[in-house]
Every structure is written in C-alpha cells, then in structure tokens.
C-alpha cells in the first residue's frame, strides 16, 4: 500500500528533500529535548496534520510545502536529529487505522488494523489512534505526541 | 664368619630399654609441663585481654572525663564571653516584648518608653533591636526625626530583620501601606532557592488575606519575578515537571484484590493490565484532590494570626546572628556535658539540631509540597490554591507526559490461559473465535484420548489361540479354550465403552468450565476496556481543570472571598 509522495526518478533515487539542507551541528540529548519540548507552530501542525489528504500524493508543490514547514520548525536541528517520520490516524476507513510519513523516504504508507509498523513507529501507534493527539512525531529514540494546541509531549 | 656370629648374638638391651623408658617418661613430663605452660599462657592471654579491655575502657573513660572537664572549663569561658559581649542583648530581648505590649496597650507613658528604649540603645551597641525599638517609640510619639534616625541605624545593623520586624509590627497596628512596604523590603532579602522556614507561615498568612491587598499584590509581583528568574535556569522546567510527576505517581491507587478476579487468575497479561489500570485511575484521584482544593469556601484559621505573631516573638526573642558562633559553641559544650563526654554522640546530636534550624527550601519545592502534601508543608487551603495556580504549566506538562506514557503502554493484546488452552484477545469481542479455538483443542484431545483407549495387546491373539485350539484339538478341551478366549474378549470389549464415555464426560466438563472462564474473562476485559476509557477521559478533564485555573485570580484570596473568622487585630 506504499504510495510515494515524491516522484521517483528512473535511476531510483528519491527527490532531494528541502529538510536535508542543514549545516546545524548534531545536538546533545539535553539540547535536543529542550528544542523538541517547545510547542509546535500552527502552520507546522496544520501541514503535518494533513498527511492523509490526497494532495500529497498528486502535488509536488504540496509536498515541498510540507517539507519546508518541517525545516522551518526545526532550523537548529542537524539531519541525524530530524524526525524519522510522522504517524497519525488514517481516515481511509476500515480496515486502515494509521498512516505514516517516512521523512527520509518521503513515503506515505497506510496500515491496516494489526499490521505491524517499524519499531519506533509501533511505539507511537496507540498514541496516534488517540483522539487527544493530532499527530505523532517519531524520532530515533523518542516519540512526541502533538496536541491540537501545539503542545508536544515526549514519551 | 666368627665375628658375624658375635654381631648377631643376643645382646643385653636392658640399659637401652631403661633409657628409652626414661626418655618416654621425660617426654610425658615435658608434655605435662607443656600443657601447664599452655594453660598458663591462656590464662596470661586472658588476663592480658582483660587488662587491655580495662585499659581501653580506662582510656575512654579518662578521655570522656577530660572532655567533660574541658567542656566545663570552656563552657564557663564561652558563657563569660557571651555575657561580656552580648549580655546586654539579652536585657534588650527581655524588655522588648514588654515594650511592644506596653505600646500596643498604651499602658505606659510615652516618656517611660522613650527613656527605656534610649537606655537600651546605649547598652546594646551593634544590636539591631535596640534602634528598632527606639524608632518604634519615636513613631508612637510622632517624633519623626528620631524615628527616621533610629530606623536608619536599625536597617544599617540588620536590614533583613528590621524589615521583617516592622512588617509584622505594622500589620498588628493595621498600617497597611507601611506594612506592604516593609514586607516588600523583607521579600527583597529572600533567596528563592533557599527560603527561610518562616516564609511558609508568612505565605499562608498572605494567601489567606491576613495581610492587606497591597501586600498580596507586592508578593504576587515578587513571586512572578522569582519564577521568571528561576525559569531562566537550565533544566529548571524539567526539574519542576519531575517534581510534579513524582507527586502524581505517588497518588496512583492500587487495584483491589476483589476486582477483575478472572483476569487476575487466568490472564498472564494481568500484571501489565493491573499496572495500566492503576496508572489510568491516577488522573481521577488527582482531579478529586484538586477539586477538593478549589471547591468550596475558604475559611481562614485564627491560628494563622497567632503564627504570624509567633514570628515576631521569635524575631524579638531569638539570638542574633553575631551571637550565633558563640551560642553554637555553648550548645555543643552543653551536649558534651549531657552525653558524659561522648564527643562523637554530642557532635551527632548537634548536627541534627543545626540541620533542623538551618533548614532552607527552594520556592518551587515549597509550591509542590504545599500543593500535594499540605499537612506536611503546613500549608493552608488558600496556599494550596495559590501553589497549584502558580505551578499550572508544570502540572499540565507532567500530567501530559504521564498520560501519554500510560496511553502508549496500555496492553493491546491480552492473553488468557485456562489449563492447556491459551488464547489472545483485544477488546472482548473475540468470544466466537476463542470458543472455536477451545472447541478445536478439546476435539483434538478427545480424538487422541479415544485413540489411546485401545483393546489389550492379547485381545486378538487370544481369540486366534482359542480358534486354533478348537480346530486343532476338536475336543471338549479345545472348545473350552475357545470359550475362555471369547469370554475374555467379551469382558475386555465391555470395559472400552465406559472408559470412552468417562473420557468424553471429563473433557465435556473441562470444556464447559474453560468456556465459562473464557466468557467471564472476556466480559471482564470488556469492563476493563470501558473503565480504562472512562478513567482516561478524566486525564483530559484534569488537564482542562488545571488549564482553567486563572493564576491571577487564584494566586491569593480576593477581598471578601474568604470568610474572615480571624480573632484579634487581623487587618
């Protein structure tokens, strides 16, 4: 069910992502926590909350906007500190329950009930399904759930 | 050869035997002596040990006696020094309370107060209380120049204590504006990372409206400043969140033994289910705690006023900072005398006393303690409201963190295990599938069980043997053998039916019991999930409740909000 959100070139190389253009040094765990505990902006939240909308599948411009919003939200972060991806409730209906956006691969994937996700993504599954959270950010070693008011909580 | 005969001829060995006997006796004697020496050595050792013990005791006793003698000598010297240097302080202290009462009750002429305070001023150079009392007498007599000069001197000598003194005196006199200014000055001296013990008493009084509106506003502004100052420190926010997280975790209730009995007994997932339920119930408990704090009318205890007056009393009566080194020496020497010269024990008691006296507390710790352990922190309900309102942001973050953890860790799949059967369920809607699984297991068991109920190995051979005997012998004896074989087979065949029936009955009974347990387990799981969702909603309710607290409105009791049942001269 994997649907690429960026056109894949014939050579098989993914489209260059704006988020990767960063020269910021890698942060220590403490610094990273301080940055990530900040409430997210409305613009960013709006962008990442619309992962399920069909426009990302068809519009490269929409995808670029989304990725630019991610880059703008974390200007001080280096590539290794970026979210691995996002996880949120899927509105496609039964049997799909969640979908993921893999930031590095730029792929939106929908998952059925019980269908296993990756290790860190699986950690955020129950949170993504909960109505209290709009979207769940997945990092290498942590999961942050974002509420509608932009507040971010580390799990 | 002849010489060889001589060699082997019998010799007279009696002399040798005698010698050997003597050696033996000697050895025995030596052995006896040796034993005696050992005994003596043991006695000596014992005596020596006893002596060493006595000696050590003597040395210790002597050391203690010397410590006592030394302490007796030194305590006299220290007290002489205290008397020489600070004896007049004691005189000032003894008269200060009387002067305050005289001023308040207006029972002594202002001239008498003036002469007494001025005399004290001359007797106690360097002591802040003397000019403070002169200033007070000047104030009472409307002698502003004298009051100002004396105040300047008192502030020069000890700004902190003078400010607190006048803050408390002006409250008793009902001078609200002056009271606010003095307490503001007192607050300027407070370090928010190490507050004095009396601060909680003042905070209770301020929060309950014992002081005027002006004091409340000033204190509120000062506290805002402290929080901004503290908030700028690295890791401060996280530290506060941790404090609140710990406080919330301590409120997790345990799941009673009577609840979810089937899951408790038949689900290997029960430990996780129980922990998750206990955690999710926490929000309800904390919500009730907070509602109890914020609902209802505030009644101000009359004790608060006496506590505030207690600060004034101790401020006037307690030793001054200058005296403290000598007072501490005096106390330590006293403890040495009390413990009979045991310096280590005296030091231990001294350290414990000093720790209690020097106890300081960060403002934020005070907020957490006042919010979650008001009895321990001696905080009133108004202080509790104020503390919770000020901690709102940290409470929400701590609550959000715990809630998200609880939601991510709720067991999705629940195992059920009854006898040999085990199955997995999620929300209790799996009855059909699980019963089918039980049915399959028991059908399989029945199949294997029936297959295991076989005729004995000798069944068919005995029949063949009987037939062979009957055909081969063709006589009565042969037929008798056949008849015996048939009888044996018939009897064996008759046993098979009941054994199969017994197996079927046993399995049917176990199947029914397993079915029943699984149905009960699933019903409990449905209840569990419902309760979990219900309790989980309380987490959101708690969040909304805390976010709805207005720090400005709840920081302190507003005029008219608290029912004033204060006795005496509360402002």
Low-confidence stretches of chain A: 1-22
**Residue fraction in strands of chain B:** under 5%
Biggest chain pair interface: A-B, 17 and 15 residues
Multimer state? heterodimer
C-alpha termini separation of chain A: 28 Å
Strands of the largest sheet of chain A, in order across it? 1-4-3-2-5-6-7
| Element-by-element helix/strand order of chain B | HHHHHHHHHHHHHHHHHHHEEHHHH
Indicate the structural class of chain A.
alpha+beta
Let me know the number of strands of chain A.
7
- What structural class should be given to the helix and strand makeup of chain B? mainly alpha
Mean pLDDT of chain A: 75
Assign a percent range to the helix content of chain B: over 70%
In N-to-C order, the SSE pattern of chain A is EHHHHEEEHHEEE
Which value, in Å, is the CA radius of gyration of chain A?
Answer: 15 Å
Largest sheet of chain A: 7 strands, antiparallel
How far apart are the termini of chain B?
A: 141 Å
Question: In this structure, how is the largest beta sheet of chain B organized?
Answer: 2 strands, antiparallel
Strand arrangement in the largest pleated sheet of chain B: 1-2
Tell me what you see in this structure.
Chain A has 155 residues and is α+β, with helices and mostly antiparallel strands. Helices cover 28% and strands 20% of the residues of chain A. Chain A has one domain. The two termini of chain A are 28 Å apart. Helices cover 77% and strands 2% of the residues of chain B. Chain B has a two-stranded antiparallel sheet. Chain B starts with a helix and ends in a 16-residue tail after the last helix. Chains A and B meet through loops of A and helix 19 of B.
């Amino acid at each position: 069910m994997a649907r690429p959100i960026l056109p894949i070139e014939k050579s098989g190389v993914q489209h260059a992502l704006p988020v990767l253009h960063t020269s910021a040094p890698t942060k220590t765990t403490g610094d990273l926590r301080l940055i990530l505990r900040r409430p997210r902006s409305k613009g960013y939240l709006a962008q990442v909350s619309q992962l399920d909308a069909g426009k990302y599948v068809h519009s490269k411009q929409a995808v670029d906007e989304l990725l630019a919003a991610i880059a703008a939200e974390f200007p001080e972060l280096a590539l290794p500190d970026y979210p691995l991806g996002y996880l949120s409730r899927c509105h496609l209906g039964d049997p799909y329950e969640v979908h993921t956006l893999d930031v590095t691969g730029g792929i939106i994937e929908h998952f059925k009930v019980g269908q296993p996700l990756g290790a860190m993504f699986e950690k955020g599954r129950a949170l993504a399904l909960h109505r209290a959270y709009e979207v769940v950010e997945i990092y290498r070693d942590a999961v942050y759930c974002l509420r509608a008011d932009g507040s971010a909580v580390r799990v | 050869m002849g010489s060889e005969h001589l060699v082997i001829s019998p010799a007279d060995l009696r002399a040798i035997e005698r010698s050997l006997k003597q050696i033996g006796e000697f050895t025995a004697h030596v052995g006896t002596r040796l034993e005696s020496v050992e005994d003596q050595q043991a006695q000596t050792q014992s005596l020596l040990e006893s002596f060493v013990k006595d000696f050590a005791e003597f040395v210790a006793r002597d050391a203690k006696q010397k410590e006592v003698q030394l302490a007796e000598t030194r305590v006299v010297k220290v007290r002489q020094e205290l008397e020489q240097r600070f004896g007049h302080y004691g005189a000032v202290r003894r008269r200060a309370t009387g002067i305050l009462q005289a001023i308040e009750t207006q029972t002594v002429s202002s001239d008498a107060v003036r002469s007494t305070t001025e005399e004290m001023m001359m007797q106690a150079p360097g002591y802040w209380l003397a000019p403070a009392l002169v200033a007070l007498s000047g104030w009472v007599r409307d002698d502003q120049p004298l009051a100002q000069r004396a105040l300047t001197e008192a502030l020069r000598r000890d700004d902190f204590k003078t400010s607190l003194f006048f803050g408390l005196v002006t409250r008793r006199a009902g001078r609200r504006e002056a009271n606010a200014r003095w307490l503001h000055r007192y607050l300027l001296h407070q370090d928010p990372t190490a507050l004095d013990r009396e601060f909680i008493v003042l905070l209770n009084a301020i929060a309950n409206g014992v002081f005027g509106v002006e004091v409340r506003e000033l204190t509120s502004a000062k506290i805002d400043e402290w929080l901004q100052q503290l908030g700028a420190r690295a890791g401060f926010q996280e530290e506060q969140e941790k404090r609140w997280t710990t406080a919330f975790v301590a409120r997790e209730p345990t799941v009673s033994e009577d609840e979810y009995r089937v899951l408790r007994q038949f689900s290997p997932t029960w430990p996780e289910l129980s922990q998750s339920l206990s955690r999710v119930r926490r929000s309800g408990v904390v919500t009730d705690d907070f509602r109890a704090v914020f609902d209802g009318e505030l009644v101000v205890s009359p004790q608060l006023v006496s506590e505030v007056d207690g600060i004034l009393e101790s401020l006037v009566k307690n030793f001054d900072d200058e005296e403290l080194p000598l007072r501490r020496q005096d106390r330590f020497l006293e403890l040495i005398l009390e413990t009979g010269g045991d310096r280590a024990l005296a030091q231990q008691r001294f350290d414990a006393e000093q720790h209690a006296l020097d106890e300081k507390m960060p403002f934020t710790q005070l907020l957490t303690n006042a919010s979650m352990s008001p009895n321990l922190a001696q905080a009133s309900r108004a202080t509790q409201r104020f503390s919770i309102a000020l901690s709102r942001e940290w409470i929400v973050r701590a609550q959000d963190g715990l809630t998200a953890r609880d939601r991510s860790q709720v067991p999705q799949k629940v195992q059920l295990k009854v006898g040999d059967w085990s199955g997995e369920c999620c929300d209790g809607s799996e009855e059909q599938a699980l019963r089918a699984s039980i049915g399959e297991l028991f059908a399989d068991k029945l199949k294997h069980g029936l297959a295991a109920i076989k005729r004995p190995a000798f069944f068919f051979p005995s029949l063949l043997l009987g037939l062979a005997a009957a055909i081969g012998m063709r006589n009565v004896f042969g037929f008798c053998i056949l008849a015996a074989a048939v009888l044996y087979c018939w009897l064996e065949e008759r046993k098979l039916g009941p054994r199969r029936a017994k197996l079927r009955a046993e399995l049917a009974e176990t199947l029914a019991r397993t079915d029943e347990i699984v149905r009960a387990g699933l019903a409990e799981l449905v209840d569990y999930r419902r309760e979990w969702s219900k309790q989980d909603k309380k987490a959101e309710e708690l969040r909304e409740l805390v976010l709805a607290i207005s720090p400005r409105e709840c920081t302190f009791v507003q005029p008219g909000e608290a029912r004033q049942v204060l006795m005496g001269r509360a402002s």
